[in-house]
Amino acid sequence: MGRKKDAVLIAEETPNPQLNSEKKKKKNKNKGKHQNDTSSPKRTLHEQNDTESTKTKKIKHHISNDIVDGETEVVNGTSDETVTERVVVVTGKNADDSKYTAFKTFAEAGLPEKVLECCKGFEKPSPIQSRAWPFLLDGRDLIGIAATGSGKTLAFGIPAIMHIMKKGKNKADRGRNPLCLMLSPTRELAQQISDVISDAGRSCVVESVCLYGGTSKGPQISSLKSGVDIVIGTPGRIQDLIEMGFLSLKEASFVVLDEADRMLDMGFEQIVRSILGQTSSVRQMVMFSATWPSAVHQLAQEFMDPDPVKVVVGSEDLAANHDVMQIVEVLDERARDKRLVALLEKYHKSQRGWKAVSIHGDKAQHARTKALSLFKEGICPLMVATDVAARGLDIPDVEVVINYSFPLTTEDYVHRIGRTGRAGKKGVAHTFFTQQNKGLAGELVNVLREAGQIVPEALMKFGTHVKKKESKLYGAHFKEIAVNAPKSKKITFNSDDED
């Protein structure tokens, strides 16, 4: 099979009919010509200016530091090679004990060959893996603060498999009840975790099932009846199957909450608490989150060991990936379509027409899954998506992100542009910023400055002041509120429900 085509991801709040219209015009104009050619279009997610560049660091000699407590760990550093710096901080009871020394190689982990089968494509453990494994393999509760794309799925996946293998002798006694539970906020992220766990557990004969809404319960119930070791899924569907009597978590003694901050932000807190309350009273808890807001902290205090280990890769405060060139364009809202077409022609200049797929909450799950698959495989190198695809998804080789509309928060902006520049690769993020987004200008300026990006003068004209308003989950952020504004009312759409 030839080289996989690069892909472009366009993020917006709602699907854009104007874009569809432009695509049709382009297609009609080139009717009779080939849809694709042999060139390699780039995967794109919201763009900025073409002239910006990121600041990088060079080192003279090979460095392989792995230092705890706030010092810098330089990863994959060689002579005159651009490197990525990460701060790795480990805290907790006896965290400095020699038995918890980070694993610099897979061999140091002392894991069975069949368990490490899934790691053969990697040179060495990622920072979160090398730090988390010693604690998790020793049965410690752990809180991991790390961005998506950091290798965190295997960071908790490998210890989960080892946990099951150690208890395997009791499998006949436990019937069809799973030993491990992994909760995820969205269907796509749950499926992504399931793919990794399924691959990792295949050589160890560890069975798993992925439970999420938007699809028939029948096959999921059949898998549960057959007996599984690991249950992966979204809170709504898992709670449904528990209430229907098809799923029992009373023997789930290894429990993972992935993207915990987003899970609570999506309103799953009560369901999550209910589910956790039905797991084994003697359990090992693992919680991964991109940030560490007070609500997540409170949940950890309630369900985890009084003194869990905490591993922070990078920062507890969300920051943009420094491998992503951020290009912010301040323009009139009516000019976005024309600029978008220009960018698409730039990144797909050899193509005769744009073959695109879309993902949004109103789309049926099977259609979302198919669209994501076509995008990942490079068959359709352009994806138009709402924030359902903004966070957590690991799509290789996305080179460009175009933010057609600026998200509601800068946190969402950081997650959106994080779809590119993954696993040490470089990426570009173009962002359209309009007058109606001016309330977030100060925060965006701070994000750009922190990442060493160029701040457009037009953006500075909106001002750099950041008015702080405490958010339950994300801490202080700016929001303009009219004095006599009516109270907000929560509206729930069935299509967005993960049940």
Automatic annotation (TrEMBL):
<feature type="region of interest" description="Disordered">
    <location>
        <begin position="1"/>
        <end position="60"/>
    </location>
</feature>
<keyword id="KW-0694">RNA-binding</keyword>
<keyword id="KW-0547">Nucleotide-binding</keyword>
<dbReference type="InterPro" id="IPR011545">
    <property type="entry name" value="DEAD/DEAH_box_helicase_dom"/>
</dbReference>
<dbReference type="Pfam" id="PF00271">
    <property type="entry name" value="Helicase_C"/>
</dbReference>
<protein>
    <recommendedName>
        <fullName>RNA helicase</fullName>
        <ecNumber>3.6.4.13</ecNumber>
    </recommendedName>
</protein>
<keyword id="KW-0067">ATP-binding</keyword>
<dbReference type="InterPro" id="IPR027417">
    <property type="entry name" value="P-loop_NTPase"/>
</dbReference>
<feature type="domain" description="DEAD-box RNA helicase Q">
    <location>
        <begin position="104"/>
        <end position="130"/>
    </location>
</feature>
<feature type="domain" description="Helicase C-terminal">
    <location>
        <begin position="317"/>
        <end position="463"/>
    </location>
</feature>
<dbReference type="GO" id="GO:0003724">
    <property type="term" value="F:RNA helicase activity"/>
</dbReference>
<keyword id="KW-0539">Nucleus</keyword>
<comment type="similarity">
    <text>Belongs to the DEAD box helicase family. DDX5/DBP2 subfamily.</text>
</comment>
<keyword id="KW-0347">Helicase</keyword>
<dbReference type="GO" id="GO:0003723">
    <property type="term" value="F:RNA binding"/>
</dbReference>
<dbReference type="InterPro" id="IPR014014">
    <property type="entry name" value="RNA_helicase_DEAD_Q_motif"/>
</dbReference>
<keyword id="KW-0378">Hydrolase</keyword>
<keyword id="KW-0690">Ribosome biogenesis</keyword>
<dbReference type="GO" id="GO:0005524">
    <property type="term" value="F:ATP binding"/>
</dbReference>
<dbReference type="InterPro" id="IPR014001">
    <property type="entry name" value="Helicase_ATP-bd"/>
</dbReference>
<dbReference type="Pfam" id="PF00270">
    <property type="entry name" value="DEAD"/>
</dbReference>
<feature type="domain" description="Helicase ATP-binding">
    <location>
        <begin position="133"/>
        <end position="310"/>
    </location>
</feature>
<feature type="compositionally biased region" description="Basic and acidic residues">
    <location>
        <begin position="44"/>
        <end position="55"/>
    </location>
</feature>
<feature type="compositionally biased region" description="Basic residues">
    <location>
        <begin position="23"/>
        <end position="33"/>
    </location>
</feature>
<dbReference type="InterPro" id="IPR000629">
    <property type="entry name" value="RNA-helicase_DEAD-box_CS"/>
</dbReference>
<keyword id="KW-0698">rRNA processing</keyword>
<dbReference type="GO" id="GO:0016787">
    <property type="term" value="F:hydrolase activity"/>
</dbReference>
<dbReference type="InterPro" id="IPR044742">
    <property type="entry name" value="DEAD/DEAH_RhlB"/>
</dbReference>
<comment type="function">
    <text>ATP-dependent RNA helicase required for 60S ribosomal subunit synthesis. Involved in efficient pre-rRNA processing, predominantly at site A3, which is necessary for the normal formation of 25S and 5.8S rRNAs.</text>
</comment>
<feature type="short sequence motif" description="Q motif">
    <location>
        <begin position="104"/>
        <end position="130"/>
    </location>
</feature>
<dbReference type="InterPro" id="IPR001650">
    <property type="entry name" value="Helicase_C-like"/>
</dbReference>
